[in-house]
Design a protein that fits this description.
Length: 156
């Protein structure tokens, strides 16, 4: 019996990552459910929180949020509508363009971010508990390296 080649190892790694992300996502969804926050809403809140000017009146436009989330603007609108209805995000006029609005995290939105952060931390700690800190560091370095290479490779 021969050992798997690099292509087999890469495919197995991709499969393992997919399974890990599904499990982490499922557990995160379960843990966020009592807060009435979906993973898509959590991602949008985290993206807004890391936007330049997050603490000011201007954060980002809906189109910018959609772009950063890699989703269609229509999908971003649906997510923001739910966040606004929950009181986590407010829409404010864009002073530079009367037709546009900016998204602002509310105080409740900042509170939700703290809960989301805690849930993410706990789920990650639980999932990766059997993996040594050194192995976690190595895995993180490898994934960052792969992501950096992917982001810099030319696209057709």
């Amino acid at each position: 019996m021969t050992s798997p080649g690099p292509a087999d190892t890469a495919a197995e790694l991709a499969d393992a990552l997919t399974r890990a992300m599904k499990r982490i996502r499922r557990r995160t969804m379960q843990r966020l459910e009592p807060y009435d926050i979906t993973p898509a809403q959590a991602r949008a809140l985290r993206t807004l929180a890391h936007a330049p000017g997050c603490e000011s009146v201007e954060t980002m436009r809906l189109s910018e949020l959609a772009e950063r989330l890699h989703i269609a603007p229509r999908s971003a609108t649906t997510v923001v509508d739910a966040l606004e209805e929950a009181g986590l995000v407010a829409r404010t006029p864009d002073p530079a363009d009367r037709r546009a609005v900016r998204l602002v995290l509310t105080a409740a939105g900042h509170g939700a971010l703290e809960r989301i952060s805690q849930v993410r931390h706990e789920v990650a700690q639980q999932y990766f508990a059997p993996v040594s800190p050194a192995e976690q560091d190595a895995l993180l370095r490898a994934l960052r390296h792969a992501e950096e290479a992917y982001e810099t490779e030319p696209r057709p």
